[in-house]
């Protein structure tokens, strides 16, 4: 199979390589539903040491920066209560945590969640967190620019591998809130 974007040696349907995905991601792929069929979720096998966006696009081509997205876990606080959420923005931008995220979540303070929290709460590897398979109760803030891409490359839940899916598929993920301007400036 050939990936719809990029030049990858090993591209397969995500449903055909569930053993490479962390349990919550594999479960979400198995249960996939929505306007985009599961056959449009493509897993590309890549080395864990090139998982970080800057290294990844150097290796596979800078043109992938325009179709790559990052998923980050944020923690918000209001009063004595804490909450977790995830944000997805194009890799060429940064999540506006102190402005857009804070307002969207209705919290007084928002910050990136500590690595240990992100990993333990998602069941995924740091540097590979994906919006596919996140806890259903979490708000999932997705920059509207992500939905505008025909295809998007995102983490697979593990540092090994990425998932390619249509941008419009993000609108069907649990807890999704589409937000204009969630990603700001260059990363």
List keywords for this structure.
187 residues, alpha+beta, YbaK protein, five-stranded mixed beta sheet, four-stranded antiparallel beta sheet, 5 helices, 20% helix, globular
Produce a short descriptive summary:
It contains five helices and eleven strands, in the order E-H-E-H-E-E-E-H-E-H-E-H-E-E-E-E. With 187 residues, it is of the alpha+beta class. Strand 3 (69-78) and strand 4 form a beta hairpin.
Description of the molecule:
By secondary structure, the chain is α+β, with helices and mostly antiparallel strands. It contains five helices and eleven strands, in the order βαβαβββαβαβαββββ. The strands form three sheets. Strands 6-3-4-7-10 form a five-stranded mixed beta sheet. It has a four-stranded antiparallel beta sheet with strand order 1-2-9-8, with no helix packed on it. The chain starts with 10 loop residues before the first strand and ends with a strand. GO terms for molecular function: aminoacyl-tRNA deacylase activity. This is YbaK/aminoacyl-tRNA synthetase-associated domain-containing protein. InterPro entries: YbaK/aa-tRNA-synt-asso_dom_sf, YbaK/aa-tRNA-synth-assoc-dom. It holds the Pfam family tRNA_edit.
Tell me the β content. 25-35%
Question: SSE string, helix = H, strand = E?
Answer: EHEHEEEHEHEHEEEE
Helix count, per DSSP? Answer: 5
**Gyration radius over CA:** 15 Å
Which fold name is given in CATH as the topology?
YbaK protein
Helix content: 10-25%
Largest sheet: 5 strands, mixed
The total of beta strands comes to: 11
Give the overall average pLDDT: 95
Pfam family, one: tRNA_edit
InterPro entries: YbaK/aa-tRNA-synt-asso_dom_sf (IPR036754), YbaK/aa-tRNA-synth-assoc-dom (IPR007214)
GO molecular function: aminoacyl-tRNA deacylase activity
Protein name: YbaK/aminoacyl-tRNA synthetase-associated domain-containing protein
């Amino acid at each position: 199979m050939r990936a719809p974007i990029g030049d990858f040696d090993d591209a397969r349907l995500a449903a055909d390589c569930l053993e490479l995905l962390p349990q919550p991601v594999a479960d979400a792929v198995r249960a996939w539903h929505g306007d985009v069929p599961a056959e449009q979720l493509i897993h590309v096998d890549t080395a864990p040491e090139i998982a970080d966006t800057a290294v990844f696009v150097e290796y596979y081509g800078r043109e992938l920066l325009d179709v790559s997205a990052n998923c980050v876990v944020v923690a918000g606080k209001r009063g004595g209560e804490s909450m977790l959420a995830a944000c997805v923005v194009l890799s060429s931008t940064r999540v506006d945590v102190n402005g857009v995220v804070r307002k969207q979540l209705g919290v007084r303070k928002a910050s990136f969640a500590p690595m240990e929290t992100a990993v333990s709460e998602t069941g995924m590897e740091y540097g590979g967190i994906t919006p596919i398979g996140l806890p259903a109760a979490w708000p999932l803030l997705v920059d509207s620019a992500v939905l505008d891409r025909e295809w998007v490359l995102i983490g697979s839940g593990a540092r090994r591998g990425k998932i390619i899916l249509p941008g419009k598929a993000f609108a069907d993920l649990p807890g999704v809130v589409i937000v204009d301007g969630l990603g700001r400036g260059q990363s």
